[in-house]
Amino acid sequence: MEPKYKRVLLKIGGEALLGDRQYGISPQACTDVATQIKEVHDLGVQIGLVIGAGNIFRGISASKNGIERATADYMGMLATVMNALAMQDALEKIGAETRVQTAIEMRAVAESFIRRKAIRHMEKGRIVILAAGTGNPYVTTDSGASLRALELNCEIVLKATKVDGVYDKDPMEHPDAKRFKTMTYVDAVTNPDINVMDASGISLCMDNNMPIYVFNLFEPGNLKRAIMGEDIGTLVTAKG
Ligand code: UDP
Q1: 46 lines ligand 1 (CB under 6 A)
Q2: Number of domains composing the chain
């Protein structure tokens, strides 16, 4: 069985690095995520990885507590760099070659994001960890994932969450909730009960026909299943 995709953009929320903590980075959780990533990387899949920072700092929450929104967002972007370094460490420890590129220049710790260089790294078999989102405030790393997926010519955005796809209602609260196998970008943006990713991230994909696959990364082996094309999540496209 061949992987369904040759080059993917994997978006991981910061909460994937929490493990059993309430805040910060669990080295064990990083290793668990890294193990899933290496498993698909070993199949020859080229991977760009965008990581959020919900485990450390979210601009919108901090701005509600009085920090100016743009400043808070920059702080959030810096937090994604910490997560990127943690994931780099975890991946390299298990033998995967990586590069961190950041949208906010930080020469002592990472390369700056340079599109053609990122593509070259992927072609050479390096996992490129894309830190600091888009480098701009007022959006989240979901928009960063869509943007990087497009400019790095990825075939799909794999959006890792803690539920296995998109449901008609919250499956944590409603046992009879039904999973959608597919859905349209329009439904994903307009239905207030559906939370695929932020609206700007979805609309960027919609305008450019970039498919999004929502799946549960907390189930070991699921990233590989998604890459192999198994029906474990929800595919968001124009047709639905
Ligand atoms: N952020 C930003 N611009 C970006 C990406 C991220 O301003 O392009 C900030 C924003 O404050 C966001 C925080 O970084 O809340 C952390 O990212 P995100 O909320 O996407 O993390 P996740 O929910 O994926 O863990």
Answers
A1: no
A2: 1
